[in-house]
């Protein structure tokens, strides 16, 4: 079970191939939902940044703090979208 955090080698590779953002779990969740004929809509929050020249190990505490900071905005956004 997750989370499955990126390694420094993965960050380096993703930078080389030009990735701007990488999802932690959206793709597997959408694949499962679509196999079950569940309509999907996804919104992601970028919780950690990768600077190719200064790659650091990802810490789950930092990711959780960034997600918590984004939660009020996302709650309001979803409320407005669904009303």
From TrEMBL:
Keyword Transferase applies: yes
Residues covered by the Nucleoside phosphorylase domain: 2-82
EC number: 2.4.2.1
GO cellular component annotations of the record: cytoplasm
Transmembrane segments: none
Pathway it works in: Purine metabolism; purine nucleoside salvage
Listed GO MF terms: purine-nucleoside phosphorylase activity
A single BP term in Gene Ontology: nucleoside metabolic process
UniProt keyword annotations, A-Z: Glycosyltransferase, Transferase
UniProt-listed Pfam families: PNP_UDP_1 (PF01048)
Enzyme class per UniProt: transferase
PANTHER family, per the entry: METHYLTHIOADENOSINE/PURINE NUCLEOSIDE PHOSPHORYLASE, PURINE NUCLEOSIDE PHOSPHORYLASE-RELATED
Family per record: Belongs to the PNP/MTAP phosphorylase family.
Name of the protein in its database record: purine-nucleoside phosphorylase
């Amino acid at each position: 079970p997750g989370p499955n955090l990126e390694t420094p080698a993965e960050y380096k590779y993703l930078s080389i191939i030009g990735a701007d953002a990488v999802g932690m779990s959206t793709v597997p969740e959408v694949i499962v939902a679509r196999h079950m004929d569940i309509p999907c809509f996804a919104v992601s929050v970028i919780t950690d940044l990768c600077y190719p020249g200064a790659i650091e190990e990802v810490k789950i505490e930092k990711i959780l703090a960034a997600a918590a900071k984004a939660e009020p905005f996302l709650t309001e956004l979803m409320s407005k979208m669904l009303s």
